[in-house]
Automatic annotation (TrEMBL):
Cofactor(s) required, per the database record: FMN
Function as written in the Swiss-Prot or TrEMBL entry: Catalyzes the conversion of dihydroorotate to orotate with quinone as electron acceptor.
Subunit structure: Monomer.
Record protein name field: Dihydroorotate dehydrogenase (quinone)
Organismal lineage: Bacteria, Pseudomonadati, Bacteroidota, Flavobacteriia, Flavobacteriales
Active site, UniProt feature: 179 (nucleophile)
Protein's pathway: Pyrimidine metabolism; UMP biosynthesis via de novo pathway; orotate from (S)-dihydroorotate (quinone route): step 1/1
GO MF term set: dihydroorotate dehydrogenase (quinone) activity
Catalytic activity, as annotated: (S)-dihydroorotate + a quinone = orotate + a quinol
SUPFAM superfamilies on file: FMN-linked oxidoreductases
Length: 340
């Protein structure tokens, strides 16, 4: 029903406005008695064979929602009803910021893709914490970044503020230095500044009574040499793992008119490259650390390819928008079929 009826209607309108409308609609309908139970019945697959233990955390299934969808932790409880095993909120910054000027979100329908140049628009980490205090059992990842006005040489302090503020309210952290939509942010992926940033966060982590897993989210545009550097950095800093991958700045093979827009590309065109990065990291590191696979998952087969390539968990974003919530159920069922 989603692809035949709901999606065509939603795709008539501006994608950012549709996003906020969808949030309001989901929040409204889930307040109706029995609707949460109905959504669980429609979309959730409860089976102990789906459970995963990764970097010390227990996931009820390996399919999560990627960062960027629920930036401000406003809808994580309701979104969990659709069958996600975990929800990643953010990217959050220390101070609220509006992000880049609109229009900044574009559908590429011919390519099953999206281009965004949102620019870490969010209400700030303190506001998100107030909502996370109401969490009722949803496993949450906290994706953190720096404010646009913060120079790179001072970026570590922004990440530390987010880390300390969120620490008691998320289950794991994701360090986002790979978004193409904040000026000079990707320069933090260079080996020296990235090692310093991650080591500082890890030192802070070790000072806590109980540590939380820290993951690094990387761009799909890194070269093999840079990916080898990532393996070295993970080994040196002893962070928990990697999320592969963020959006790409590549426009190879696109058909849509909106391909000329600047920003990060997500969706089907990223499927192959994201899987290649996962496989490279897994093989070259000899599976030394867990990988969360994300990028271009539009079918159960796409998800299984990433798991087979070396991912321990997967995340959806653009595929969730194009294929609808039934995709989560399809992936979990396909995983169960494979275990038989």
């Amino acid at each position: 029903m989603y692809k035949l009826l709901i999606r065509p209607i939603l795709f008539w309108f501006d994608p950012e406005k549709v996003h906020y409308f969808s949030f309001s609609f989901i929040r409204l309908i889930t307040k109706i008695p029995f609707v949460p139970t109905l959504l669980k019945w429609l979309y959730q697959v409860d089976d102990p064979r789906l459970e995963r233990e990764v970097f010390g955390l227990k996931f009820k299934n390996p399919v999560g929602l990627a960062a960027g969808f629920d930036k401000d932790a406003k809808l994580y409880q309701e979104l969990s009803l659709f069958g996600f095993g975990f929800i990643e909120i953010g990217t959050l910054t220390p101070k609220p910021q509006d992000g880049n000027p609109k229009k900044r979100l574009f559908r590429l329908k011919e390519d099953n893709a999206i281009i965004n140049r949102m620019g870490f628009n969010n209400g700030g980490v303190d506001a998100a914490v107030l909502r996370l205090m109401k969490n009722k059992g949803v496993l949450i990842g906290g994706n953190i970044g720096k404010n646009k006005v913060t120079e790179n040489e001072n970026a570590t302090s922004d990440y530390l503020i987010c880390f300390d503020t969120l620490f008691d309210y998320v289950d794991y952290f994701v360090v986002n230095v790979s978004s193409p939509n904040t000026p000079n942010l990707r320069a933090l992926q260079d080996k020296e500044p990235l090692t310093t940033l991650l080591q500082t966060l890890q030192n802070q982590n070790l000072n806590k009574p109980k540590q939380k897993p820290i993951l690094l989210k990387i761009a799909p545009d890194l070269t093999d040499e840079q990916l080898l550097d990532i393996i070295d950095i993970v080994r040196e800093t002893k962070i928990a793992g990697v999320i592969a991958t963020n959006t790409t700045i590549s426009r190879d093979g696109l058909q849509s008119e909106n391909k000329v827009e600047t920003g990060g590309l997500s969706g089907k065109p990223l499927t192959k490259r994201a899987t290649e990065v996962i496989r490279f990291l897994s093989e070259k590191s000899h599976k030394a650390f867990p990988i969360i696979g994300v990028g271009g998952i539009h079918s159960a087969e796409d998800a299984l390819e990433k798991l087979d390539a070396g991912a321990s968990l997967v995340q959806l974003y653009t595929g969730f928008i194009y294929e609808g919530p039934n995709l989560i159920k399809q992936i979990n069922r396909k995983i169960l079929e494979k275990t038989l």
